[in-house]
Write a structure and sequence with these properties.
Structural class of chain A: mainly alpha
Strand order of the largest sheet of chain A: 1-3-2
Oligomer: homodimer
Radius of gyration of chain A: 20 Å
CATH topology of the largest domain in chain A: Four Helix Bundle (Hemerythrin (Met), subunit A)
CATH superfamily of the largest domain in chain A: GntR ligand-binding domain-like
CATH architecture of the largest domain in chain A: Up-down Bundle
Shape of chain A: globular
Strand content of chain A: under 5%
Distance between the termini of chain A: 35 Å
Helix content of chain A: over 70%
Largest interface: A-B, 37 and 37 residues
Largest sheet of chain A: 3 strands, antiparallel
Number of strands of chain A: 3
Number of helices of chain A: 11
DNA sequence: TTTTCGTTAACTGTTGACAATTTTTTCTGA
DNA sequence: TCAGAAAAAATTGTCAACAGTTAACGAAAA
């Protein structure tokens, strides 16, 4: 964790040090550099980022507000750790949010946006056909981002992002991204069809289902792993 | 704004001063003591609450994380002000969240909970029959809280609460609570029927619609007011 | 009267220090 | 060797002070 904060210097003109620290800590969490359950040492982090503890503490409070960090008085602040049940909860909410995004998108998408959306799906299909996972993941991420950003509801987009971030707080972080490429592709096709048809109800349904089936895929893997480790 | 923080002293054993300040500031916002767009003077607030600026700043960051406050570097922190468009956005998200709550509730409600839910509806009907608004509002609030709390998804409940709080950031705060008592009652009845029938789809639909129609009622009043002030 | 510039005051951003609490280490006795 | 108590270290909570920026005010010029 030797990242300099100097990259953020441009941001410091418009935003405070605390905000830069917040971004950095969030990056470290999503990175995996900060593991769920780990304590955040204020002194250590402060000296690593070249600041005092004030901005660090402010950043931690902000992250606490978004639910990525939990603080216990006189004990410290910890990267939040999500239980299986909590992951299920996050997926439920995420599903509702993404369903809303799908519905809104079907109501207001432009021809231009529809073309870009189609290109995303085609590129993902090509990537999965040649088993190019390195290309698939960022495309998949951008695809989902594009959908929530195009839905025309900034509150929704913001909340959706927060909930996706929360999934990184699960112990099996790596599993969240993986699983079911070809399955996803057929789902993506249906989402596209629903949006292209400008059918809000269908689109809502398709987008909802896409998230819940991602949840099911993850949970089945987790369940299998747990069963395996229990018999050992 | 002469409220002492001493009432929160019991909380200080488990939580930090910053957390107590956060609660207090949030109370002042929901209260109306802090108006949307108003700046938060750190020194003033610190001396009023009998602390230093450190905890104040931490509390502000936490509130920024939940979206109740906006900060501009070197200018200060301001109670967020929601535009009509943003209120519409909040209602859209809230509708999706409440719809999810309705769906989940229909799937898992117990007989006990169903009776309590029914009592809420009956009491609200009685209150509106005798035009007792003082009794109606808290009942209505408790009714909604009970639904999201009984849905068995703490993330959902928390987010729902946050979005309801955000509605207080609209200039026409007073209007958010009011309007359409008898209309609400018929909607409440349908929600109740759907939940009692353990029909997730119907319940989802009914709960969604309840929020969107509340939104429509609010927006029509706002629109009417705006039209009035423009002709003056 | 209005505008512009410079001075002053107020306020935010950040830091280092001190107090209180928790955790770790060390020491003692069985 | 181990359990428990005491001491030491580490860490968090809070505060007060200082630096830098912005806003407010008033005087001088157009």
């Amino acid at each position: 964790m030797t990242t300099s904060i100097s990259e953020e210097l441009g941001i410091l003109r418009t935003s405070s040090l605390a905000a830069a620290v917040e971004r950095e800590v969030e990056r470290l969490i999503l990175n995996g550099s900060f593991a769920p359950g780990e304590r955040i040492n204020e002194n250590k982090l402060a000296s690593e980022l070249g600041t005092s503890r004030g901005p660090i503490r402010e950043a931690i409070r902000a992250l606490e507000g978004t639910g990525l960090v939990v603080s216990i008085r006189n004990r410290g602040s910890f990267i939040r750790r999500l239980s299986v049940q909590e992951v299920r909860e996050v997926y439920e909410v995420r599903s509702a949010l993404f369903g809303l995004a799908g519905k809104l998108l079907a109501e207001r998408i432009t021809e231009d946006q529809l073309q870009r959306l189609t290109r995303f799906v085609v590129e993902m299909e090509e990537a999965s056909k040649r088993r190019d996972f390195e290309a698939y993941y960022p495309l998949n991420l951008a695809f989902h981002e594009f959908i929530v950003d195009s839905a025309g509801n900034t509150m929704l987009a913001q909340q959706y992002r927060t909930f996706v971030k929360k999934l990184h707080l699960f112990r099996a972080r790596s599993l969240v991204q993986g699983g079911g490429l070809t399955v996803s592709n057929t789902e993506h096709r249906e989402m596209l069809s629903a949006v292209a048809a400008r059918d809000p109800v269908w689109s809502h349904e398709a987008h909802c289902r896409h998230v819940t089936s991602a949840r099911d895929r993850l949970l089945s893997v987790v369940k299998a792993e747990d069963a395996l480790s229990n018999t050992n």
